[in-house]
Write a structure and sequence with these properties.
This protein is α/β, with parallel strands linked by helices. Helices cover 46% and strands 22% of the residues. Helix 14 runs parallel beside helix 16. The structure holds ligand C2E and calcium ion (2 copies).
Length: 574
């Protein structure tokens, strides 16, 4: 069934055409409404959806072309095909009608039953083709379009990226995170300072967030003060929380716009694919629910759609803020654990170990160091550790005849700090410490995904004259290539490799194998976690060079070490 609107002032023509179209035709049925003038036709057009308007050119008052122009201004999507009719066979007129947007032109004298039907059907088909073209043009235009204020991708591009990313992730084991961001109290800022300030603030926020983005992150403005971030190829959902925290942090510094200072923050909602849902539409809904919850909590909040994630996130976020406070309030301390030369049974140095207590409760570095790494607080904390440890060994070595070594743990994240070698060198000069007395301990995981930059930092530290030790060996890959490709001079055997029972031959053989391999590479060996007499025996037998562990001494504060060891001229209590 096709709905036709016939607009013609001539009663004879109207009846003529209506009769033609109501004649029986099994294939196509036409339902015809009539209007006697352009105005009447426009009224009818607004009331009902027509497939084709059959429009007479010559009418008193307003002619057909005027109506055609009005119809053209209607949104294309609910548009209608138009066929113009006229009495004269005027080529100029026909062309003008087609140019103005009619799909066809027909001369009244030529109208026959069959011909009219064919013209109407063709006009409709042509119109639909045009519509399709128009749509794909529109789509291309939208896809190319950026948000003009911020230069970010728009919602359309973001939706498409989300769909594609999720489709690509259907098989993979990776995670995709959708973060929806909403600026807190943006309406208030607009009302209080005006839209110009609001616009500048939007741009500034985008600039800061953009600067912190990585390559596997899509950032888009979804509208108003709402933004979307898409993270893909994630190994764990914790990475999403890292990005969220990063954003909260970079917005902490107030914005200065002219003379106005604005404290701005965002609320963030997060949903994860495939954990929360496998469906692209649903993930949007879930992230939106999470955003709603986060807004409800107040300003500057992050909510995960999933409750368990939420708990984990809140804990980590709390610890991260506590770490920041601890850094500014000087709450960190270093403890020192003696390292003993096994053949001579004397202390040759210490390993510096980080200590932190909150409300008198000690926190384990194994728990908080990963959070410090993720939030990159370790960059500043790590520099503090280096300065503290170097200054301590400088003090002790001034008291002693034979200088001691100091082992300092550094995290892989610190290797992204390109200024680190220079910093270390300055510290050596400041405290007058010989670089050869300092050993930087790196875990094998740090060497796993090394980049040229990280490699350069390791090389530069080595070039200063420092030694590099491979920490926790035997827990991860224990790869020989790492030992050969990096400027490593010693290997610390992980404490978990110390035989647990008295007579476990298998454990001892494993240890023997590892040690002989390391020795063959010409590296020195440090045993860790020696707790018993037996451990000391085994390590001595296997020609482990130096060792540390509760058997000799637990890590202790610098005061304790000073009183119990340094003052007593390096004797270890046995
Ligand atoms: P790690 O570098 O392997 O440090 C040795 C850990 O073994 C220390 O734990 C130490 O207290 C403990 N330990 C020493 N002797 C024994 C023993 O006989 N038996 C047992 N069971 N344990 C012993 P701690 O201080 O809790 O540190 C844990 C980890 O946290 C360290 O492992 C290191 O990976 C990290 N860490 C500690 N301080 C720092 C630091 O200043 N910077 C960085 N980046 N990481 C640190
Ligand atoms: Ca260590
Ligand atoms: Ca270790």
């Amino acid at each position: 069934m096709m709905n036709i609107l016939l607009v013609d002032d001539d009663i004879v023509d109207r009846e003529h055409i209506t009769r033609f179209l109501s004649a029986n035709d099994n294939e196509n049925k036409f339902d015809v409404d009539v209007a006697e003038s352009v105005n009447e036709g426009l009224e009818a057009f607004l009331r009902k959806k027509y497939d084709v308007v059959l429009l007479d050119y010559k009418m008193p008052q307003r002619d057909g072309i005027e109506m055609l122009i009005e119809l053209n201004n209607e949104p294309k999507e609910d548009g209608t095909a138009v066929v113009m009719m006229s009495n004269s066979e005027e080529e100029q007129l026909a062309l003008e009608c087609l140019r103005t947007g009619a799909q066809d032109f027909i001369v009244k004298n030529d109208i026959t039953d069959a011909r009219l039907r064919r013209v109407l059907i063709n006009a409709r088909t042509r119109f639909e083709l045009e519509l399709e073209l128009h749509r794909s043009y529109q789509k291309l235009k939208e896809m190319a379009e950026q948000d003009s204020l911020t230069g970010l991708s728009n919602r359309y591009v973001f939706d498409e990226s989300l769909k594609v990313t999720i489709a690509n992730n259907q098989r993979g084991n990776n995670k995709v995170a959708l973060l929806l961001l909403d600026i807190d109290n943006f309406k208030y800022i607009n009302d209080a300072f005006g839209h110009d300030v609001g616009d500048i603030l939007l741009k500034r926020i985008v600039k800061r967030v953009n600067a912190s983005m990585r390559s596997n992150e899509v950032f888009a403005r979804l509208g108003g003060d709402e933004f979307g971030i898409l993270l893909y190829n994630l190994d764990t959902d914790l990475q999403a929380s890292t990005v969220a925290r990063r954003i909260l942090n970079i917005l902490e510094v107030p914005f200065e716009i002219g003379t106005i200072v604005i404290n701005s923050s965002v609320s963030i909602g997060i949903a994860i694919h495939p954990d929360n849902t496998k469906n692209a539409k649903e993930i949007y809904k879930f992230a939106d629910i999470a955003l709603y919850r986060s807004k409800k909590l107040g300003k500057n909040q992050v909510c995960f759609f999933e409750e368990e994630m939420q708990k984990l996130f809140s804990m980590r976020y709390r610890v991260e803020n506590e770490l920041r406070t601890a850094l500014t309030e000087n709450q960190f301390k270093l403890f020192y654990q003696p390292i003993v030369d096994l053949s001579e049974r004397k202390i040759i140095g210490f390993e510096a170990l980080l200590r932190w207590s909150v409300d008198g409760e000690p926190r384990s570095p194994d728990d908080f160091i990963p959070i410090a790494e993720e939030s990159r607080i370790i960059l500043e904390l790590g520099r503090w550790i280096i300065e503290e440890a170097v200054s301590q060994i400088s003090i002790w070595n001034k008291e002693l005849d034979e200088p001691l070594k100091i082992g300092i743990n550094i995290s892989v994240v610190q290797l992204t700090d390109l200024g680190l070698p220079k910093f270390i060198n300055n510290i050596f000069e400041k405290y007058d410490v010989d670089a050869t007395k300092v050993v930087f301990e790196l875990t094998e995981t740090a060497l796993l995904d090394y980049t040229t930059d990280k490699m350069n930092v390791i090389e530069s530290i080595h070039d200063l004259g420092c030694n590099i030790a491979l920490d926790d060996f035997g827990t991860g890959y224990s790869s020989v290539s790492h030992l050969r490709n990096f400027p490593i001079s010693s290997v610390k055997i992980d404490k978990s490799l110390m035989p647990s029972t008295n007579e476990d031959e298998k454990e001892i053989s494993l240890l023997r194998g590892l040690i002989s391999m390391i020795k063959h590479l010409g590296l020195s060996i440090v045993g860790e976690g020696l707790e018993t007499e037996r451990h000391v025996e085994i390590c001595s037998e296997l020609k482990v060079d130096t060792a540390q562990g509760y058997y000799f001494a637990k890590p202790a504060s610098s005061e304790e070490i000073h009183n119990s060891i340094i003052k007593k001229n390096m004797q270890i209590a046995e």
